[in-house]
Amino acid sequence: MAQYSRPKGTQDxxxxxxxxxxxxxxxxxxxxxxxGFERIDxxxxxxxxxxxxxxxxxxxxxxxxxxxxKDKGDRDIALRPEFTAGVIxxxxxxxxxxxxxxxxxxxxxxxxxxxxxxxxxxxQFHQFNAEILGVQSPxxxxxxxxxxxxxxxxxxxxxxxxxxxxxxCPECRPGxxxxxxxxxxxxxxxxCEDCQRRIVQNPLxxxxxxxxxxxxxxxxxxxxTAMLCExxxxxxxxxxxxxxxxxxxxxxxxxxxxxxxxYTKTVFEVWAEGIGAQAAVxxxxxxxxxxxxxxxxxxxxxxxxxxxERIVMVMKTQGVEIPxxxxxxxxxxxxxxxxxxxxxxxxxxxxxAGIGAQIAMSGSLRAQxxxxxxxxxxxxxxxxxDELARGEVTLxxxxxxxxxxxxxxxxxxxxxxxxxxxxxxxxxxx
Length: 430
Ligand code: ATP
Ligand code: MG
Hints:
Bound molecules: adenosine-5'-triphosphate, magnesium ion
Structural class: alpha+beta
Strand order of the largest sheet: 1-5-6-11-10-9-7-8
Mean pLDDT: 92
CATH class of the largest domain: Alpha Beta
CATH architecture of the largest domain: 2-Layer Sandwich
Number of strands: 16
Radius of gyration: 28 Å
Largest sheet: 8 strands, mixed
Number of domains: 2
Distance between the termini: 54 Å
Helix content: 25-40%
Low-confidence stretches: 425-430
CATH superfamily of the largest domain: Bira Bifunctional Protein, Domain 2
Strand content: 15-25%
C-alpha cells in the first residue's frame, strides 16, 4: 500500500482545531453583517489572465506564486491567490454597478500561493476579504479600517495600532517614482538583485523588501507623503482626521505599498502586540483604477484581506478564550438485541423532536457510559431489556449522576423537560 501525505504547504484542520475556525468564521461574518456588508462567493479558480491583469504581472503572487494550469479545454486557469480580482470581475459581469452605492461585500474561503511554507505561510490558506465599491469618500477607507480593527478587537488581541500610508495616484505617483529611482540608482550596488530589478519593473515594491542589505537604502529613500497631489493629500488628511477624532492609534509607515498603478491613495495594516511586520495578519488599501483596468466602468474601491491561519496562530499564542462547539446533548446506551432496536427507534424520535442525539455503536455498558461522558453528553438514556419489559428506560443526568425511570413511550417529553430544566439552571448560575 502506498503511503500518502498531504501536498507540501497544505494543512489538515482537525476536529480539535475546528472550534477556533468556527468561532473565527462566526465572528468575522457577524461583525461584517453588523457593518452592512453582504456576502459574495466567487469561484476558487478563474482565467489566469484575470489575476495577471488584476494583481499585475510583476507581483510575487503572479510571477512566482500562481497555481496556473491548462484545463482539458486548453483554457489557462489559475487557483485564486486572493479575492479582489474575482470580486471585481463578478461586480462588472453581474452589472452590480446599478446597485445602490456603496456596495459593501465580504467573502471567506481558501486562496493558493506557491510559496516556501513556514509558520503562518502555506500554499493553501484562507482569507476573510472585504471591499467597499463605488464611493470615493475617505469614509469608505475608514469603514474598512474599522472593520479590520473590530475583528482584532473582538478576538481579544492586545495593543492594536494601524500602520498607514498613502501611495498617491497616477497624478502624483510618477513624480515620486522618479525620485525613488534616482535614489536607488545612486545606491544600486548596495541593494539586492530583486530590488535592482524591481526599481525598474515595479519600483514601489523596493520599499517592501525584507533583505537586510536593502534596509539602509530604504531608510534614506524619499517619502511619498511629502509629494502627494492636492486630491490625495486632502483624502489622506480627512482620513487621518477621522482616526484622530476616534482616538485610534496609527503609525505613518512610508514603507507600506502596493506596487501597481491602479492602487491609489490609502494603504493600511493592523498590527497587534507581539505580531506585526514579520506576520502581517491583514493588508488593505484603495484601488480606484482596478475595475476600469478589468474592463468595467471606473469604480472607486477600497478593501482588505485577513489571513485566517495567522489569526488562529495569534489566538493560540495570546491564549484567546473560545467557546466549545456544542455536542449533541443526548447519548443512548443499550444492552441486548431487543433494547438496541428500541434504542434506534428512540434515537430517531428524539432527533425528530429537534434534540441532538447519538447512539453507542459498540462496547459493554460501562464502555458505552464512559463514551457518553467523553462525548460531553448531558443526558444518557440507558435502554435495558428488563426495564424495557416493564415499559421503562433509565434517564441519567450526567452532571449530577442522578437517575430516574421514565415511561418508554414518554421519553421525548421527559428529555425536553430535562433539557429546559438543565439549561434553565445553567442560565441561573451564570
Ligand atoms: P506577506 O508579506 O506576509 O507575504 P502579502 O502582502 O503577500 O503578505 P496579502 O496579499 O496582503 O499578503 O494578503 C493578505 C493576508 O493574507 C496577509 O496579511 C496574510 O495574513 C495572508 N497571507 C498571505 N499569504 C499567505 C500565505 N501564503 N499563507 C498564509 N497566509 C497568507
Ligand atoms: Mg506574500
